[in-house]
Protein backbone atom coordinates (compact mmCIF):
# COMPACT_ATOMS: atom_id res chain seq x y z
CA UNK A 1 0.00 0.00 0.00
CA UNK A 2 1.29 3.42 -0.85
CA UNK A 3 0.71 6.42 1.38
CA UNK A 4 1.52 8.77 -1.46
CA UNK A 5 -1.61 8.90 -3.53
CA UNK A 6 -1.88 10.23 -7.02
CA UNK A 7 -2.61 13.88 -7.69
CA UNK A 8 -6.41 13.79 -7.80
CA UNK A 9 -6.56 12.42 -4.26
CA UNK A 10 -4.26 15.14 -3.05
CA UNK A 11 -6.20 17.87 -4.69
CA UNK A 12 -9.37 16.61 -3.09
CA UNK A 13 -7.80 16.59 0.34
CA UNK A 14 -6.48 20.11 -0.11
CA UNK A 15 -9.98 21.18 -1.04
CA UNK A 16 -11.48 19.53 2.02
CA UNK A 17 -8.89 21.21 4.22
CA UNK A 18 -9.75 24.59 2.75
CA UNK A 19 -13.43 23.97 3.48
CA UNK A 20 -12.52 23.04 7.01
CA UNK A 21 -10.59 26.26 7.44
CA UNK A 22 -13.36 28.46 6.05
CA UNK A 23 -15.98 26.88 8.28
CA UNK A 24 -13.71 27.25 11.28
CA UNK A 25 -13.40 30.99 10.63
CA UNK A 26 -17.14 31.25 10.09
CA UNK A 27 -17.90 29.65 13.43
CA UNK A 28 -15.43 31.91 15.20
CA UNK A 29 -17.20 34.91 13.68
CA UNK A 30 -20.62 33.65 14.79
CA UNK A 31 -19.42 33.17 18.33
CA UNK A 32 -17.68 36.53 18.37
CA UNK A 33 -20.80 38.40 17.31
CA UNK A 34 -22.71 36.96 20.25
CA UNK A 35 -19.94 37.57 22.74
CA UNK A 36 -19.23 41.07 21.48
CA UNK A 37 -22.87 42.12 21.63
CA UNK A 38 -23.09 40.87 25.18
CA UNK A 39 -19.85 42.60 26.14
CA UNK A 40 -21.03 45.88 24.62
CA UNK A 41 -24.24 45.63 26.60
CA UNK A 42 -22.41 44.89 29.82
CA UNK A 43 -19.89 47.70 29.36
CA UNK A 44 -22.64 50.17 28.54
CA UNK A 45 -24.63 49.21 31.62
CA UNK A 46 -21.65 49.21 33.93
CA UNK A 47 -20.52 52.62 32.68
CA UNK A 48 -23.98 54.03 33.29
CA UNK A 49 -24.65 52.40 36.59
CA UNK A 50 -21.39 51.94 38.41
CA UNK A 51 -21.65 55.36 40.12
CA UNK A 52 -24.95 54.38 41.72
CA UNK A 53 -23.82 50.87 42.56
CA UNK A 54 -23.28 51.87 46.19
CA UNK A 55 -24.58 50.91 49.63
CA UNK A 56 -27.46 53.38 49.27
CA UNK A 57 -28.88 51.25 46.50
CA UNK A 58 -29.31 48.37 48.93
CA UNK A 59 -30.41 50.28 52.00
CA UNK A 60 -32.76 52.95 50.63
CA UNK A 61 -36.38 52.62 49.64
CA UNK A 62 -37.53 54.02 46.30
CA UNK A 63 -38.02 57.75 46.32
CA UNK A 64 -39.22 60.56 44.12
CA UNK A 65 -35.77 62.09 44.42
CA UNK A 66 -33.27 60.13 42.38
CA UNK A 67 -30.41 61.03 44.69
CA UNK A 68 -32.06 59.23 47.60
CA UNK A 69 -33.70 56.34 45.82
CA UNK A 70 -32.67 52.73 46.37
CA UNK A 71 -34.11 49.30 45.70
CA UNK A 72 -34.13 47.73 49.14
CA UNK A 73 -37.78 46.71 48.90
CA UNK A 74 -37.27 45.31 45.39
CA UNK A 75 -34.25 43.21 46.34
CA UNK A 76 -35.98 41.87 49.43
CA UNK A 77 -39.16 41.28 47.40
CA UNK A 78 -37.24 39.26 44.82
CA UNK A 79 -35.53 37.22 47.52
CA UNK A 80 -38.80 36.49 49.35
CA UNK A 81 -40.34 35.51 46.07
CA UNK A 82 -37.50 33.07 45.45
CA UNK A 83 -37.85 31.65 48.94
CA UNK A 84 -41.51 30.84 48.38
CA UNK A 85 -41.13 29.70 44.80
CA UNK A 86 -38.09 27.48 45.15
CA UNK A 87 -39.54 24.78 47.42
CA UNK A 88 -42.98 24.95 45.78
CA UNK A 89 -41.75 24.59 42.23
CA UNK A 90 -39.18 21.98 43.25
CA UNK A 91 -41.74 19.74 44.93
CA UNK A 92 -44.44 20.15 42.28
CA UNK A 93 -42.07 20.00 39.31
CA UNK A 94 -39.97 17.07 40.44
CA UNK A 95 -43.03 15.23 41.68
CA UNK A 96 -44.69 15.57 38.30
CA UNK A 97 -41.51 14.52 36.52
CA UNK A 98 -41.19 11.41 38.69
CA UNK A 99 -44.80 10.53 38.04
CA UNK A 100 -44.51 10.96 34.29
CA UNK A 101 -41.23 9.10 33.96
CA UNK A 102 -41.61 6.31 36.49
CA UNK A 103 -45.26 5.72 37.24
CA UNK A 104 -47.47 6.87 34.36
CA UNK A 105 -48.38 4.23 31.80
CA UNK A 106 -46.98 5.16 28.43
CA UNK A 107 -50.39 5.58 26.79
CA UNK A 108 -52.09 8.23 24.75
CA UNK A 109 -53.20 10.28 27.75
CA UNK A 110 -49.64 10.48 29.04
CA UNK A 111 -48.37 11.52 25.64
CA UNK A 112 -51.04 14.23 25.51
CA UNK A 113 -50.03 15.54 28.93
CA UNK A 114 -46.42 15.46 27.84
CA UNK A 115 -47.16 17.46 24.73
CA UNK A 116 -49.08 19.98 26.80
CA UNK A 117 -46.26 20.46 29.26
CA UNK A 118 -43.70 20.96 26.51
CA UNK A 119 -46.00 23.51 24.90
CA UNK A 120 -46.62 25.32 28.17
CA UNK A 121 -42.87 25.77 28.53
CA UNK A 122 -43.02 28.06 25.52
CA UNK A 123 -46.15 30.07 26.34
CA UNK A 124 -45.46 33.84 26.66
CA UNK A 125 -45.08 34.82 30.28
CA UNK A 126 -47.79 37.49 30.12
CA UNK A 127 -50.30 34.68 29.67
CA UNK A 128 -49.26 33.34 33.06
CA UNK A 129 -49.83 36.83 34.41
CA UNK A 130 -53.42 36.76 33.16
CA UNK A 131 -53.88 33.28 34.61
CA UNK A 132 -52.45 34.40 37.96
CA UNK A 133 -54.71 37.43 37.99
CA UNK A 134 -57.80 35.32 37.45
CA UNK A 135 -56.81 32.38 39.59
CA UNK A 136 -54.94 33.79 42.58
CA UNK A 137 -55.65 37.52 42.78
CA UNK A 138 -59.38 37.25 42.06
CA UNK A 139 -60.32 33.57 42.31
CA UNK A 140 -58.64 32.80 45.60
CA UNK A 141 -58.88 36.45 46.68
CA UNK A 142 -55.21 36.58 47.56
CA UNK A 143 -55.12 40.19 46.30
CA UNK A 144 -52.01 41.70 44.83
CA UNK A 145 -49.80 39.96 47.31
CA UNK A 146 -46.39 38.37 47.47
CA UNK A 147 -48.13 35.00 47.59
CA UNK A 148 -50.10 35.67 44.39
CA UNK A 149 -46.88 36.68 42.69
CA UNK A 150 -44.97 33.65 43.89
CA UNK A 151 -47.74 31.25 42.89
CA UNK A 152 -47.96 32.80 39.44
CA UNK A 153 -44.22 32.54 38.98
CA UNK A 154 -44.33 28.94 40.19
CA UNK A 155 -46.78 28.15 37.40
CA UNK A 156 -44.50 29.91 34.96
CA UNK A 157 -41.40 27.88 35.80
CA UNK A 158 -43.18 24.58 36.43
CA UNK A 159 -43.16 23.30 32.84
CA UNK A 160 -39.49 24.14 32.47
CA UNK A 161 -38.64 22.32 35.69
CA UNK A 162 -40.75 19.30 34.79
CA UNK A 163 -39.17 18.92 31.37
CA UNK A 164 -35.61 19.30 32.61
CA UNK A 165 -36.19 16.98 35.58
CA UNK A 166 -37.68 14.38 33.24
CA UNK A 167 -34.58 14.54 31.11
CA UNK A 168 -32.35 14.10 34.13
CA UNK A 169 -34.40 11.13 35.34
CA UNK A 170 -34.44 9.54 31.91
CA UNK A 171 -30.66 9.82 31.73
CA UNK A 172 -30.21 7.45 34.69
CA UNK A 173 -29.05 4.14 33.21
CA UNK A 174 -31.60 1.33 33.23
CA UNK A 175 -28.97 -0.97 34.74
CA UNK A 176 -29.13 1.08 37.92
CA UNK A 177 -32.89 0.54 38.24
CA UNK A 178 -32.53 -3.16 37.44
CA UNK A 179 -29.87 -3.55 40.13
CA UNK A 180 -32.25 -2.07 42.67
CA UNK A 181 -35.32 -4.06 41.60
CA UNK A 182 -33.30 -7.27 41.53
CA UNK A 183 -32.48 -6.75 45.20
CA UNK A 184 -36.17 -6.70 46.03
CA UNK A 185 -36.75 -2.94 46.06
CA UNK A 186 -40.24 -1.56 45.52
CA UNK A 187 -40.84 1.09 42.90
CA UNK A 188 -40.61 3.94 45.37
CA UNK A 189 -37.49 2.54 47.01
CA UNK A 190 -35.86 2.32 43.60
CA UNK A 191 -36.91 5.84 42.67
CA UNK A 192 -35.87 7.41 45.96
CA UNK A 193 -32.67 5.49 46.64
CA UNK A 194 -31.27 4.73 43.22
CA UNK A 195 -32.80 6.92 40.52
CA UNK A 196 -33.15 10.26 42.29
CA UNK A 197 -29.66 10.39 43.82
CA UNK A 198 -28.26 9.87 40.32
CA UNK A 199 -30.63 12.37 38.74
CA UNK A 200 -30.42 15.03 41.45
CA UNK A 201 -27.55 17.14 40.07
CA UNK A 202 -29.34 17.40 36.72
CA UNK A 203 -32.65 18.11 38.43
CA UNK A 204 -31.18 20.84 40.63
CA UNK A 205 -29.40 22.45 37.71
CA UNK A 206 -32.71 22.64 35.88
CA UNK A 207 -34.46 24.09 38.93
CA UNK A 208 -31.81 26.77 39.42
CA UNK A 209 -31.85 27.78 35.77
CA UNK A 210 -35.65 27.95 35.81
CA UNK A 211 -35.60 30.07 38.97
CA UNK A 212 -33.05 32.40 37.45
CA UNK A 213 -35.42 32.91 34.58
CA UNK A 214 -38.17 33.80 37.04
CA UNK A 215 -35.96 36.34 38.79
CA UNK A 216 -35.72 38.36 35.60
CA UNK A 217 -39.40 38.15 34.63
CA UNK A 218 -41.44 41.34 34.70
CA UNK A 219 -44.52 40.94 32.60
CA UNK A 220 -46.58 38.48 34.66
CA UNK A 221 -45.90 40.40 37.86
CA UNK A 222 -46.89 43.72 36.32
CA UNK A 223 -50.05 41.94 35.24
CA UNK A 224 -50.97 40.72 38.68
CA UNK A 225 -49.97 44.07 40.14
CA UNK A 226 -46.53 44.05 41.65
CA UNK A 227 -46.31 47.68 42.78
CA UNK A 228 -43.71 50.11 41.59
CA UNK A 229 -43.49 52.19 44.69
CA UNK A 230 -43.10 50.15 47.84
CA UNK A 231 -41.57 51.96 50.77
CA UNK A 232 -41.74 49.08 53.21
CA UNK A 233 -40.70 45.44 53.42
CA UNK A 234 -43.43 42.84 53.14
CA UNK A 235 -44.16 41.47 56.61
CA UNK A 236 -46.36 38.61 55.57
CA UNK A 237 -46.91 36.70 52.39
CA UNK A 238 -50.18 38.58 51.92
CA UNK A 239 -48.51 42.01 51.79
CA UNK A 240 -48.03 43.84 48.56
CA UNK A 241 -44.58 43.76 47.06
CA UNK A 242 -42.25 44.74 44.28
CA UNK A 243 -39.35 42.95 42.62
CA UNK A 244 -36.13 44.07 40.96
CA UNK A 245 -37.18 43.95 37.30
CA UNK A 246 -40.32 45.97 38.04
CA UNK A 247 -38.31 48.59 39.89
CA UNK A 248 -35.81 48.76 37.04
CA UNK A 249 -38.58 49.04 34.48
CA UNK A 250 -40.14 51.85 36.49
CA UNK A 251 -36.89 53.81 36.71
CA UNK A 252 -36.11 53.43 33.04
CA UNK A 253 -39.48 54.75 31.99
CA UNK A 254 -38.93 58.06 33.82
CA UNK A 255 -37.65 61.07 31.88
CA UNK A 256 -35.09 62.12 34.50
CA UNK A 257 -31.60 60.98 33.44
CA UNK A 258 -30.58 60.30 37.06
CA UNK A 259 -33.13 57.51 37.27
CA UNK A 260 -31.61 55.85 34.22
CA UNK A 261 -28.34 55.56 36.10
CA UNK A 262 -30.24 54.00 38.98
CA UNK A 263 -31.82 51.55 36.58
CA UNK A 264 -28.40 50.60 35.23
CA UNK A 265 -27.18 50.01 38.78
CA UNK A 266 -30.26 47.87 39.39
CA UNK A 267 -29.47 45.84 36.30
CA UNK A 268 -25.96 45.26 37.64
CA UNK A 269 -27.43 43.84 40.85
CA UNK A 270 -29.78 41.62 38.85
CA UNK A 271 -26.95 40.42 36.61
CA UNK A 272 -24.79 39.57 39.61
CA UNK A 273 -27.62 37.59 41.10
CA UNK A 274 -28.17 35.67 37.86
CA UNK A 275 -24.45 35.04 37.55
CA UNK A 276 -24.30 33.64 41.07
CA UNK A 277 -27.21 31.31 40.38
CA UNK A 278 -25.70 30.04 37.15
CA UNK A 279 -22.40 29.60 38.90
CA UNK A 280 -24.11 27.55 41.59
CA UNK A 281 -25.64 25.37 38.89
CA UNK A 282 -22.23 24.76 37.32
CA UNK A 283 -20.63 23.96 40.69
CA UNK A 284 -23.38 21.52 41.44
CA UNK A 285 -22.97 19.77 38.15
CA UNK A 286 -19.20 19.47 38.52
CA UNK A 287 -19.40 18.29 42.09
CA UNK A 288 -21.66 15.40 41.23
CA UNK A 289 -20.37 14.53 37.79
CA UNK A 290 -17.33 12.96 39.45
CA UNK A 291 -19.28 10.18 41.12
CA UNK A 292 -22.11 9.57 38.70
CA UNK B 1 -30.19 -34.16 44.39
CA UNK B 2 -33.29 -32.32 45.49
CA UNK B 3 -35.21 -30.22 42.99
CA UNK B 4 -35.55 -26.57 43.98
CA UNK B 5 -36.98 -24.93 40.89
CA UNK B 6 -39.67 -26.68 38.91
CA UNK B 7 -40.66 -25.19 35.58
CA UNK B 8 -43.70 -26.75 33.93
CA UNK B 9 -44.91 -26.14 30.38
CA UNK B 10 -43.74 -22.57 30.39
CA UNK B 11 -44.62 -20.38 27.43
CA UNK B 12 -43.61 -16.75 27.23
CA UNK B 13 -44.73 -14.15 24.73
CA UNK B 14 -43.30 -10.69 24.11
CA UNK B 15 -46.53 -9.23 22.72
CA UNK B 16 -46.88 -11.51 19.67
CA UNK B 17 -43.40 -13.05 19.72
CA UNK B 18 -43.30 -16.55 21.18
CA UNK B 19 -39.96 -16.46 23.03
CA UNK B 20 -40.19 -19.58 25.22
CA UNK B 21 -41.95 -22.68 23.97
CA UNK B 22 -43.24 -25.30 26.30
CA UNK B 23 -40.23 -25.29 28.58
CA UNK B 24 -40.18 -27.87 31.39
CA UNK B 25 -37.15 -28.14 33.64
CA UNK B 26 -36.24 -29.27 37.13
CA UNK B 27 -33.31 -27.39 38.55
CA UNK B 28 -31.61 -29.04 41.55
CA UNK B 29 -30.60 -27.14 44.64
CA UNK B 30 -27.03 -26.34 45.70
CA UNK B 31 -25.60 -26.98 42.27
CA UNK B 32 -24.68 -24.96 39.21
CA UNK B 33 -26.98 -25.20 36.23
CA UNK B 34 -25.82 -23.63 32.97
CA UNK B 35 -28.01 -22.38 30.11
CA UNK B 36 -26.29 -22.49 26.74
CA UNK B 37 -27.45 -21.88 23.20
CA UNK B 38 -27.06 -19.45 20.33
CA UNK B 39 -27.87 -15.77 20.67
CA UNK B 40 -31.58 -15.00 20.87
CA UNK B 41 -32.67 -18.50 21.87
CA UNK B 42 -34.28 -17.29 25.12
CA UNK B 43 -31.68 -18.00 27.82
CA UNK B 44 -31.91 -14.55 29.41
CA UNK B 45 -35.67 -14.58 29.05
CA UNK B 46 -35.98 -17.81 31.01
CA UNK B 47 -33.53 -16.59 33.62
CA UNK B 48 -35.57 -13.40 34.10
CA UNK B 49 -38.78 -15.36 34.63
CA UNK B 50 -37.17 -16.88 37.73
CA UNK B 51 -37.04 -13.54 39.58
CA UNK B 52 -39.87 -12.01 37.61
CA UNK B 53 -37.76 -9.23 36.11
CA UNK B 54 -39.81 -9.85 32.97
CA UNK B 55 -42.82 -8.39 34.75
CA UNK B 56 -41.43 -4.96 34.01
CA UNK B 57 -41.31 -5.45 30.25
CA UNK B 58 -44.66 -4.24 28.89
CA UNK B 59 -46.52 -6.77 26.77
CA UNK B 60 -44.98 -9.84 28.37
CA UNK B 61 -47.35 -12.73 28.98
CA UNK B 62 -46.62 -16.13 30.40
CA UNK B 63 -48.40 -19.46 30.59
CA UNK B 64 -47.45 -22.49 32.66
CA UNK B 65 -45.99 -22.55 36.14
CA UNK B 66 -42.73 -21.99 37.91
CA UNK B 67 -42.49 -23.29 41.45
CA UNK B 68 -39.60 -22.59 43.79
CA UNK B 69 -39.48 -24.82 46.84
CA UNK B 70 -43.02 -25.89 45.98
CA UNK B 71 -44.51 -22.39 45.80
CA UNK B 72 -45.81 -21.01 42.53
CA UNK B 73 -43.90 -17.74 42.17
CA UNK B 74 -46.51 -16.23 39.88
CA UNK B 75 -49.38 -16.82 42.30
CA UNK B 76 -51.05 -13.87 44.00
CA UNK B 77 -49.76 -14.78 47.43
CA UNK B 78 -46.15 -14.21 46.44
CA UNK B 79 -44.91 -10.63 46.40
CA UNK B 80 -42.14 -9.97 43.93
CA UNK B 81 -40.05 -8.09 46.50
CA UNK B 82 -39.80 -11.19 48.68
CA UNK B 83 -39.18 -13.37 45.65
CA UNK B 84 -36.33 -11.16 44.43
CA UNK B 85 -34.84 -11.12 47.90
CA UNK B 86 -34.68 -14.91 47.72
CA UNK B 87 -33.57 -15.03 44.08
CA UNK B 88 -30.61 -12.70 43.53
CA UNK B 89 -29.33 -11.63 40.14
CA UNK B 90 -25.98 -10.63 38.67
CA UNK B 91 -26.00 -8.89 35.32
CA UNK B 92 -23.80 -9.02 32.26
CA UNK B 93 -22.30 -5.59 32.82
CA UNK B 94 -21.16 -4.85 36.36
CA UNK B 95 -23.71 -2.29 37.57
CA UNK B 96 -22.67 -0.90 40.95
CA UNK B 97 -24.52 2.12 42.31
CA UNK B 98 -22.61 5.41 42.32
CA UNK B 99 -22.10 4.99 46.04
CA UNK B 100 -19.34 3.74 48.30
CA UNK B 101 -18.39 0.07 48.40
CA UNK B 102 -20.02 -0.16 51.81
CA UNK B 103 -23.26 1.49 50.72
CA UNK B 104 -23.48 -0.74 47.66
CA UNK B 105 -23.50 -3.85 49.83
CA UNK B 106 -25.75 -2.28 52.46
CA UNK B 107 -28.28 -1.18 49.84
CA UNK B 108 -30.19 -4.47 49.88
CA UNK B 109 -30.29 -5.05 53.64
CA UNK B 110 -31.41 -1.43 54.14
CA UNK B 111 -34.28 -1.97 51.67
CA UNK B 112 -35.48 -4.77 53.86
CA UNK B 113 -35.37 -2.75 57.03
CA UNK B 114 -31.99 -3.44 58.60
CA UNK B 115 -30.81 -0.22 60.23
CA UNK B 116 -28.38 -1.14 62.95
CA UNK B 117 -24.85 -0.11 62.10
CA UNK B 118 -23.37 -3.13 63.76
CA UNK B 119 -25.58 -5.54 61.86
CA UNK B 120 -24.83 -3.80 58.57
CA UNK B 121 -21.09 -3.89 59.26
CA UNK B 122 -21.35 -7.61 59.79
CA UNK B 123 -23.34 -8.20 56.61
CA UNK B 124 -20.93 -6.09 54.55
CA UNK B 125 -17.94 -7.98 55.87
CA UNK B 126 -19.48 -11.42 55.41
CA UNK B 127 -20.77 -10.69 51.90
CA UNK B 128 -17.42 -9.31 50.77
CA UNK B 129 -15.66 -12.31 52.26
CA UNK B 130 -18.07 -14.66 50.50
CA UNK B 131 -17.31 -13.00 47.17
CA UNK B 132 -13.57 -13.05 47.92
CA UNK B 133 -13.25 -9.31 47.70
CA UNK B 134 -12.77 -8.49 51.36
CA UNK B 135 -8.98 -8.56 51.45
CA UNK B 136 -8.77 -6.22 48.48
CA UNK B 137 -11.18 -3.58 49.76
CA UNK B 138 -11.36 -3.86 53.55
CA UNK B 139 -9.21 -0.77 54.08
CA UNK B 140 -11.25 1.52 51.88
CA UNK B 141 -14.89 0.60 52.18
CA UNK B 142 -15.78 4.29 51.95
CA UNK B 143 -14.34 4.63 48.46
CA UNK B 144 -16.59 4.86 45.43
CA UNK B 145 -17.45 1.51 43.88
CA UNK B 146 -16.31 2.98 40.56
CA UNK B 147 -12.73 3.02 41.82
CA UNK B 148 -12.69 -0.78 41.47
CA UNK B 149 -11.66 -2.69 38.34
CA UNK B 150 -14.30 -4.36 36.18
CA UNK B 151 -13.68 -7.77 37.73
CA UNK B 152 -13.76 -6.35 41.24
CA UNK B 153 -16.97 -4.50 40.42
CA UNK B 154 -18.56 -7.74 39.29
CA UNK B 155 -17.53 -9.46 42.53
CA UNK B 156 -18.95 -6.45 44.37
CA UNK B 157 -22.23 -7.00 42.54
CA UNK B 158 -22.17 -10.64 43.60
CA UNK B 159 -21.51 -9.57 47.19
CA UNK B 160 -24.37 -7.10 46.92
CA UNK B 161 -26.68 -9.88 45.77
CA UNK B 162 -25.52 -12.15 48.59
CA UNK B 163 -26.09 -9.45 51.19
CA UNK B 164 -29.85 -9.97 51.22
CA UNK B 165 -29.32 -13.65 51.95
CA UNK B 166 -30.80 -15.28 48.85
CA UNK B 167 -31.19 -19.01 48.20
CA UNK B 168 -30.73 -18.74 44.46
CA UNK B 169 -28.24 -16.72 42.44
CA UNK B 170 -28.94 -15.98 38.77
CA UNK B 171 -25.96 -14.97 36.65
CA UNK B 172 -26.58 -13.71 33.13
CA UNK B 173 -23.28 -13.90 31.25
CA UNK B 174 -21.69 -12.41 34.32
CA UNK B 175 -18.18 -12.82 32.98
CA UNK B 176 -18.61 -11.82 29.37
CA UNK B 177 -17.46 -8.25 29.99
CA UNK B 178 -14.39 -9.35 31.95
CA UNK B 179 -10.79 -10.28 31.19
CA UNK B 180 -9.69 -13.96 31.45
CA UNK B 181 -8.19 -13.63 34.94
CA UNK B 182 -11.27 -11.92 36.40
CA UNK B 183 -13.39 -14.53 34.64
CA UNK B 184 -11.44 -17.31 36.29
CA UNK B 185 -11.89 -15.67 39.68
CA UNK B 186 -15.64 -15.47 39.21
CA UNK B 187 -15.74 -19.11 38.10
CA UNK B 188 -13.83 -20.17 41.20
CA UNK B 189 -16.15 -18.05 43.27
CA UNK B 190 -19.18 -19.76 41.73
CA UNK B 191 -17.67 -23.14 42.59
CA UNK B 192 -17.28 -22.05 46.18
CA UNK B 193 -20.76 -20.56 46.41
CA UNK B 194 -22.58 -23.62 45.15
CA UNK B 195 -22.23 -25.33 48.52
CA UNK B 196 -24.55 -22.71 49.94
CA UNK B 197 -26.51 -21.38 46.98
CA UNK B 198 -28.34 -22.71 43.97
CA UNK B 199 -26.74 -21.09 40.96
CA UNK B 200 -28.25 -20.72 37.50
CA UNK B 201 -25.93 -19.18 34.94
CA UNK B 202 -26.30 -18.17 31.34
CA UNK B 203 -23.11 -18.37 29.35
CA UNK B 204 -22.01 -17.98 25.78
CA UNK B 205 -18.82 -19.74 26.56
CA UNK B 206 -19.20 -23.51 26.27
CA UNK B 207 -15.88 -24.12 27.94
CA UNK B 208 -17.13 -22.18 30.90
CA UNK B 209 -20.28 -24.27 31.07
CA UNK B 210 -18.18 -27.43 30.82
CA UNK B 211 -15.73 -26.22 33.49
CA UNK B 212 -18.07 -24.98 36.18
CA UNK B 213 -21.57 -26.39 35.88
CA UNK B 214 -23.14 -29.60 37.14
CA UNK B 215 -26.09 -29.58 34.75
CA UNK B 216 -26.36 -28.00 31.35
CA UNK B 217 -29.46 -27.01 29.42
CA UNK B 218 -29.15 -26.46 25.68
CA UNK B 219 -31.73 -24.13 24.11
CA UNK B 220 -32.64 -23.50 20.52
CA UNK B 221 -35.30 -21.05 19.34
CA UNK B 222 -37.01 -20.90 22.71
CA UNK B 223 -37.12 -24.64 23.23
CA UNK B 224 -35.15 -26.97 25.48
CA UNK B 225 -33.28 -29.31 23.20
CA UNK B 226 -31.36 -31.23 25.79
CA UNK B 227 -30.96 -31.17 29.54
CA UNK B 228 -28.37 -33.43 31.14
CA UNK B 229 -25.44 -33.67 33.49
CA UNK B 230 -22.75 -31.43 32.10
CA UNK B 231 -20.30 -34.27 31.63
CA UNK B 232 -22.81 -36.36 29.74
CA UNK B 233 -24.05 -33.47 27.59
CA UNK B 234 -20.59 -32.50 26.45
CA UNK B 235 -19.14 -35.99 26.01
CA UNK B 236 -22.12 -37.88 24.76
CA UNK B 237 -25.02 -35.67 23.67
CA UNK B 238 -28.16 -37.53 22.73
CA UNK B 239 -29.49 -34.95 20.27
CA UNK B 240 -27.80 -34.24 16.97
CA UNK B 241 -28.42 -30.49 17.29
CA UNK B 242 -26.63 -30.43 20.64
CA UNK B 243 -23.70 -32.20 19.13
CA UNK B 244 -23.59 -29.75 16.24
CA UNK B 245 -23.67 -26.83 18.63
CA UNK B 246 -21.02 -27.99 21.06
CA UNK B 247 -18.71 -29.05 18.28
CA UNK B 248 -18.99 -25.51 16.95
CA UNK B 249 -20.87 -26.30 13.78
CA UNK B 250 -23.31 -23.43 14.35
CA UNK B 251 -24.16 -20.63 16.84
N1 LIG C 1 -38.04 -6.93 25.75
C1 LIG C 1 -38.23 -7.70 24.67
N2 LIG C 1 -39.22 -7.41 23.81
C2 LIG C 1 -39.41 -8.16 22.70
N3 LIG C 1 -38.66 -9.21 22.36
C3 LIG C 1 -37.64 -9.55 23.17
C4 LIG C 1 -37.37 -8.80 24.36
N4 LIG C 1 -36.29 -9.35 24.96
C5 LIG C 1 -35.91 -10.38 24.18
N5 LIG C 1 -36.73 -10.51 23.12
C6 LIG C 1 -36.62 -11.53 22.07
O1 LIG C 1 -36.74 -12.78 22.67
C7 LIG C 1 -35.78 -13.68 22.16
C8 LIG C 1 -34.94 -14.26 23.27
O2 LIG C 1 -34.17 -13.22 23.83
P1 LIG C 1 -33.13 -13.46 24.99
O3 LIG C 1 -32.59 -12.15 25.38
O4 LIG C 1 -33.76 -14.28 26.03
O5 LIG C 1 -32.01 -14.31 24.22
P2 LIG C 1 -30.64 -14.87 24.78
O6 LIG C 1 -30.68 -16.33 24.57
O7 LIG C 1 -30.38 -14.39 26.15
O8 LIG C 1 -29.63 -14.23 23.76
P3 LIG C 1 -28.14 -13.66 24.04
O9 LIG C 1 -27.28 -14.87 24.12
O10 LIG C 1 -27.85 -12.86 22.80
O11 LIG C 1 -28.18 -12.87 25.28
C9 LIG C 1 -34.98 -12.93 21.12
O12 LIG C 1 -35.45 -13.27 19.85
C10 LIG C 1 -35.25 -11.48 21.42
O13 LIG C 1 -35.27 -10.75 20.23
MG1 LIG D 1 -28.98 -12.97 27.02
Mean pLDDT value of chain A: 86
Q: Spell the H/E element sequence of chain B.
A: EEEHEEHEHHHHEHEHEEHH
Task: Give the CATH architecture of the largest domain in chain A.
Answer: Orthogonal Bundle
Alpha carbon gyration radius of chain A = 25 Å
Q: How many β-strands of chain A, per DSSP? A: 0
Q: How is the biggest beta sheet of chain B arranged?
A: 6 strands, mixed
Organism (chain B): Paenibacillus plantiphilus
Protein name (chain B): Phosphate import ATP-binding protein PstB 3
Domain ABC transporter (chain B): 5-246
Pfam family, one (chain B): ABC_tran
Summed up:
The complex is a heterodimer of chains A (292) and B (251). Chain A is mainly alpha-helical and 292 residues long. Chain A contains 11 helices and no strands.
Task: Describe this protein's structure.
The complex is a heterodimer of chains A (292) and B (251). Chain A is mainly α. Helix content of chain A is 75%, strand content 0%. Chain A folds into 2 domains: 7-52; 55-291, MetI-like fold (Orthogonal Bundle). Chain A has helices at residues 7-49, 55-59, 72-103, 108-120, 125-139, 146-170, 174-182, 187-215, 219-224, 244-252, 257-289. In chain A, helix 1 (7-49) packs across helix 11, helix 6 (146-170) packs across helix 8 (187-215) and helix 7 (174-182) packs antiparallel against helix 8 (187-215). The radius of gyration of chain A is 25 Å and the shape is flat. The mean pLDDT of chain A is 86. Chain B has 251 residues and is an alpha/beta fold. Helices cover 36% and strands 27% of the residues of chain B. Chain B has 10 helices and 10 strands. The interface between A and B is medium-sized, with 20 and 30 residues. Residues 43-44, 172, 202 of chain B line the site of magnesium ion. Chain A: Residues 75-280 form the ABC transmembrane type-1 domain.
